[in-house]
Amino acid sequence: MSAQEFLDALPMLKEDVLSDPSTMKMPPQARDWISRLIDASVAGGKMNRGLTVPSTLQLLLNRPLTKTETQNAIVLGWGVEWLQAFFLVADDIMDQSLTRRGQPCWYRTKNHLSGDPNALVGNIAINDSLILESCIYIFVRKYFRSQPYYADLLDLFHDTTWQTELGQLLDLTTQPNRGDFTPFTLDTYNRIVKYKTAYYSFYLPVALAMILAGITNKKSFESALDILLPMGEYFQIQDDYLDCYGAPEVIGKVGRDIEENKCSWLICQAILNGTPEQIAQLKTVYGRDNPEDVAVVKKIFNDIEIPKIFKQYEDKSFAELTQAIKQSHDLPQAVFTTFLGRIYKRSV
């Protein structure tokens, strides 16, 4: 399926939200607000997570999809994209991020309903993130209420949301007082990544396609999880690397892991590989929100050869994932190799 075909379904789903009976009872300015929210927060991404649903379904069925199968896969694919939008709008507020997908974060956009030309969306975005989440269940109810797997879809979306929220909790509560590196361990980091990223970005779209394909064998879902969670961890480590070394005009955001004192893969590796002197200096500058200290952190990272350590990790992880895929026989191996091919050595 082409990205354009997938994107062409967005106006239909947006209209589903705006024509929902509850939405229709709202005044015009509220419906207009929701419309703008969808345009700014759901559209504009790479859509890799959403596109994975129809592409995986086709691989599982090993034939062209019918019109109904295509629509169902597209709807659930956009459900994943809506879930992503919910997480990102909320995450940007919590992290006080500046840009998203090359544009100001939603909470930093102009509040067009305010009489003040300088007013921003601000904390209204907290409620907006919840609106985005609720849209998913409008779609699931409308398109799948009569299906025998309706409850399975609800459970999967709810469980994945809960897992991601737990990961976000860990992420936010493992930012210690500046200079205290005690919580910065790979064990802590891996747990954050597993819950915050891997479940919703990798397992969810594949599991949705498996449900649509009529797969009910619990072992098949467990086998998928065994490969997709490590793949999600690899993806997030790439993301941490790009947060520091990626160009903002390429990755679409300004990296702030250093300023926010994040338990990132880079700081964990620096602690494991740095000299006592380097680690002591990092404790004085890591987590400070000014360009001079960030530059010092990045210089220490370079002195410790973090890019080289990342390259070694990337090659090792790719080899291990490739081997795990070769040994998996519960699902077509192309389900996993296609996913891995999209993320290996990515630059955005």
Task: Describe it.
This protein has 348 residues and is mainly alpha-helical. It has 2 domains: 1-146, Farnesyl Diphosphate Synthase (Orthogonal Bundle), CATH 1.10.600; 148-348, Farnesyl Diphosphate Synthase. 70% of the residues lie in helices and 1% in strands. It has 16 helices and 2 strands. The protein has helices spanning 3-7, 10-18, 21-24, 28-41, 48-61, 67-95, 124-144, 150-173, 186-212, 218-245, 248-251, 265-273, 276-285, 291-303, 306-326, 334-343; strands at 99-100, 103-104. Strands 1-2 form a two-stranded antiparallel ribbon. Helix 5 (48-61) runs antiparallel to helix 6, helix 5 crosses helix 9 (186-212) and helix 6 runs antiparallel to helix 7. The radius of gyration is 21 Å and the shape is globular.
How would you summarize what this structure contains?
This protein is mostly helical and 348 residues long. The chain has helices at 3-7, 10-18, 21-24, 28-41, 48-61, 67-95, 124-144, 150-173, 186-212, 218-245, 248-251, 265-273, 276-285, 291-303, 306-326, 334-343, and strands at 99-100, 103-104. A hairpin with a 2-residue loop joins strand 1 and strand 2.
How is the secondary structure organized here?
Elements lengths: L2 H5 L2 H9 L2 H4 L3 H14 L6 H14 L5 H29 L3 E2 L2 E2 L19 H21 L5 H24 L12 H27 L5 H28 L2 H4 L13 H9 L2 H10 L5 H13 L2 H21 L7 H10 L5
Antiparallel strand pairs: 1-2
Helix pairs in contact: 5-6, 5-9, 5-16, 6-7, 6-9, 8-9, 9-10, 10-15
Query: For this entry, what is the oligomeric state of its chains?
Result: single chain
Structural class: mainly alpha
Kindly, what is the distance between the CA atoms of the first and last residues, rounded to a whole number of angstroms?
Answer: 22 Å
* Spatial strand arrangement across the major sheet: 1-2
What's the CATH H-level homologous superfamily of the largest domain? Farnesyl Diphosphate Synthase
Mind telling me the C-alpha Rg? 21 Å
Overall 3D geometry?
globular
Q: Could you report the average pLDDT, rounded to the nearest whole number?
A: 93
Number of strands: 2
**What is the CATH C level class of the largest domain, in words?**
Mainly Alpha
Regions with pLDDT < 50 over 5+ consecutive residues? none
